[in-house]
């Protein structure tokens, strides 16, 4: 699964596609409309999805792409709860997805973000396409 082209930008809703980087900011494209916008580093903070990791109990971390892959693999048997579900239900779901996540450092808000980003990308078919591209590269 390839998340290197996706970024979350403060002040912009959803996940954006990286078009180009500049010294003073980044050109990002809205995934739905394709509209390109310049996001200045003075006004925005950037979180590339490929750099995000989830803390684990063994003082390590797991890349977000691994968590997303687990979510994809378990979608049929373990449906994704609604974002507004009770905290204990969200924690239980995330424990099924990543059993060794650090319950002290991974907050409910982090779980909600991961679910929201996953659903955003999955609804647009971007996770499945990335997965197919990865298997083609291996062959």
Question: How is the topology of this model organized?
Answer:
Blueprint: E1 6-9, E2 15-22, E3 25-30, E4 36-40, E5 46-48, E6 53-55, E7 61-63, H1 64-74, H2 87-97, H3 108-123, H4 126-138
Antiparallel strand pairs: 1-2, 1-5, 2-3, 3-4, 6-7
Q: What is the arithmetic mean of pLDDT? A: 90
Q: What is the string of helix and strand elements?
A: EEEEEEEHHHH
Radius of gyration, CA atoms, in whole angstroms = 16 Å
- Shape summary: globular
Q: What's the domain count?
A: 2
In the CATH hierarchy, what is the architecture of the largest domain at level 2? Answer: Orthogonal Bundle
Q: Helix- and strand-based class?
A: alpha+beta
CATH class of the largest domain reads Mainly Alpha
* Proportion of residues in extended strands: 15-25%
**Separation of the first and last Cα atoms:** 15 Å
Question: What level of helicity do the residues show?
Answer: 25-40%
Largest beta sheet: what is the strand line-up?
A: 4-3-2-1-5
């Amino acid at each position: 699964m390839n998340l290197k082209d996706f970024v979350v930008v403060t002040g912009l809703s959803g996940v954006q596609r990286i078009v180009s980087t500049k010294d003073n900011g980044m050109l990002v494209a809205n995934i739905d409309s394709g509209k390109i916008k310049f996001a200045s580093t003075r006004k925005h903070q950037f979180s590339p999805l490929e750099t995000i990791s989830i803390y684990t109990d063994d003082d390590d971390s797991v890349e977000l792409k691994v968590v997303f892959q687990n979510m994809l693999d378990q979608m049929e048997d373990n449906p994704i709860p609604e974002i507004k579900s009770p905290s204990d239900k969200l924690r239980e779901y995330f424990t099924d997805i990543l059993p060794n996540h650090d319950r002290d450092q991974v907050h409910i808000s982090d779980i909600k973000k991961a679910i929201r980003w996953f659903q955003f990308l999955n609804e647009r078919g971007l996770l499945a396409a990335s997965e197919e591209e990865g298997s083609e590269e291996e062959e």
